[in-house]
Specification:
EC 5.3.1.25, 596 residues, L-fucose Isomerase, Chain A, domain 3, L-fucose isomerase, Fuc_iso_dom3_sf
């Protein structure tokens, strides 16, 4: 169920038509409206919101041939909470009179490729109009000519429609929601300097701030659901097994101290969730204000060091909230960034909204060349790891879905939560140990999830960076979470903090630019963190980035998978990366010009 305030945005579908009466328009009414109905059913049958509900479409009841009908449609879209607009047409229409000019929502047009009527001519004219008024549109045109009575959607058109709608809904779902900063800047990490201009102008989001002392207050004053706490603690004791304590024996915590820490981290988890989305049960205890939450679609927890120097760290809370399950069962993952890295949190949010799946948060920690692996382990890797690996590892926000224990057709994957079985939840939990925190890093203790991502899962690593006078840029690297021999993993892992979750990442190389080799990927990455999504979904990120006017600084997605607004070609066709920068700068952030 939708756990945030506000209705879920609908997909608005509008059928445009040649406005000439006395035979022309009348002959096209049924065909045009049938296109709208067919595409609406296709979308509703194939897409769900990240919260699990089927995507809803609103089809404007009239065909649109002139400005008055366009105006009536715009008003109807507002009343029906339309967040993304798709126009369909089988014919020529009056361009500027029929296009959707509703501000700040993504727009696409599917022009039917048929020879009886010039749908392609309208598509080109409407695209030119959108470019001229500064409201880019996604043009969808099938590669093969269809007969006029053909009511199917070609496969290439289906791909573009789904890509456009998924990205458009991601944009619409973010609008008006909050990023909740629990704490402030962690250890000087720039991503945890939460930039309100970026959130408001590019994402349409607001920023909420809570000092970490609020966690302590709620713990001390029992501002949480005590009945749920008992349930959560029981579940945790039964399912979350302690792993190795890496601390010297003389400084290790006692069993009593560890048990107390377990109680604290479970309470922290409940409280962080309540801070994000509220909790009606708190009203029964008289905490009306605290019951409301902050309507946060994403949050970050500072932790280090003002909290972790004397209280248990947030690793358990971050890992469980980011997973697709907890003591209440299988549910939509939350998005919670460790070290309050808001920019990595946004990349995680993009991945979640685009795929409906839980996300992994990692340090982009170490490049291991084939030569270094051979020197340290005596082994030579083959297959996808033969060119070297990037070790993705960090305490905190890696979802337990990242263990790779969910399966379909004999392959490992990270499922959408409504596809996960209870047996897979058990496997994810059994593959995870909870190690006592390294008391050198975390003086207050806590428990870090320890697991190894099982391959060979396709994954995509992304990151948002803010650059002075440039603004935000997005980086994308598709690749694989690969299996390496256990003895090799053990040797390499124990050279760093082995109590944390590990993913061995082999990016797909193109032999050019940032993807010349694995070292180049590591060397070009713009920050210390990366957000990891299941699947090769870089194309989805690129489509969303173009809607938000965020240029893509590096990617290894093939040209035939990239879908941006048609007007992007006006900024250059030979060097598409540079053209993307120019287009994003020209049109500016979708919700207003960033103050620089």
């Amino acid at each position: 169920m939708n756990r945030l305030n506000g209705e879920l945005p609908k997909v608005g579908i509008r059928a445009t038509i040649d406005g000439r009466r006395r035979g022309v328009r009348e002959s096209l009414e049924t065909q045009a409206m049938d296109m709208a109905k067919i595409v609406g059913k296709f979308i509703e049958d194939n897409l769900r919101y990240p919260s699990g509900e089927p995507v809803q479409c609103y089809i404007f009841e009239e065909t649109i041939g002139r400005v008055p009908e366009s105006a009536r449609c715009e008003e109807a879209f507002k009343k029906n909470n339309v967040g993304v607009s798709l126009t369909v047409t089988p014919c020529w229409c009056y361009g500027t009179e029929t296009i959707d000019t509703t501000p700040n929502i993504p727009k696409g047009i599917w022009g039917f490729n048929g020879t009886e009527r010039p749908g392609a001519v309208y598509l080109a004219a409407a695209g030119a109009a959108h470019g001229q008024i500064g409201d880019p549109v996604f043009s969808i045109y099938g590669k093969d000519v269809q007969d006029s009575n053909d009511k199917t959607i070609p496969e290439d058109v289906k791909i573009k429609i789904l890509n456009f709608i998924e990205a458009g809904l991601a944009l619409a779902l973010m609008k008006g929601k909050s990023y909740l900063s629990i704490g402030n800047v962690s250890m000087g990490i720039a991503g945890s300097i939460v930039n309100s201009d970026f959130f408001s102008d590019y994402l349409g989001m607001r920023n909420e701030y809570v000092d970490m002392v609020e966690l302590k207050r709620r713990i001390d004053e029992k501002i949480y659901d005590e009945e749920e706490f008992e349930k959560a603690l029981k579940w945790t004791k039964e399912n979350c097994k302690e792993g190795e304590d890496c601390n010297n024996i003389e400084v290790q915590k006692t069993l009593e101290e560890k048990n107390k820490d377990w109680e604290t981290v479970v309470k922290m988890t409940l409280i962080m969730r309540d801070l994000m989305i509220g909790n009606e049960n708190l009203k029964k205890k008289g905490f009306l204000e605290e019951a409301e939450g902050h309507n946060a679609i994403v949050a970050g927890f500072q932790g280090q060091r003002q909290w972790t120097d004397y209280m248990p760290n947030g690793d358990f809370s971050e890992a469980i909230l980011n997973s697709s399950f907890d003591w209440n069962g299988i549910r939509e993952a939350f998005i919670l960034a460790t070290e309050n890295d808001s920019l990595n949190g946004v990349a995680m949010l993009f991945g979640h909204l685009l795929t409906g799946r839980a996300q992994i948060f990692s340090d982009v920690r170490t490049f291991w060349s084939p030569e270094a692996i051979k020197r340290v382990t005596g082994k030579t890797l083959s297959g996808k790891g033969e060119n070297g690996l990037i070790h993705l590892i960090n305490s905190g926000s890696s979802s337990l879905d990242g263990t790779g224990e969910q399966m379909k057709d004999g392959k490992r994957l990270m499922k959408k939560f409504w596809e996960i079985t209870p047996e897979e939840v058990t496997k994810c939990l059994n593959s995870t140990k909870w190690c006592e925190a390294d008391l050198g890093y975390f003086r207050g203790g806590g428990f870090s999830s320890q697991f190894l991502t099982k391959g060979e899962m396709p994954i995509t690593m992304t990151r948002i960076n803010l650059i002075k006078r440039l603004g935000p840029v997005l980086q994308i690297a598709e690749g694989y979470a690969i299996d390496i021999p256990n003895d090799v993993h053990s040797i390499l892992d124990r050279r760093t903090n082995f109590t944390w979750p590990s993913t061995w990442f082999a990016p797909i190389l193109t032999g050019e630019g940032a993807f010349t080799d694995v070292h180049s990927v590591m060397d070009t990455w713009g920050a210390n963190h990366g957000a990891i999504s299941y699947g090769h979904v870089g194309d989805k990120f690129i489509t969303l980035a173009s809607m938000l006017r965020i240029p893509v600084a590096m990617h290894n997605v093939s040209d035939n998978r990239i879908f941006r607004p048609k007007v992007w070609s006006s900024f250059g066709t030979l060097d598409k990366e540079s053209a993307d920068y120019r287009a994003c700068e020209n049109f500016g952030p979708i919700y207003g010009k960033l103050k620089r």
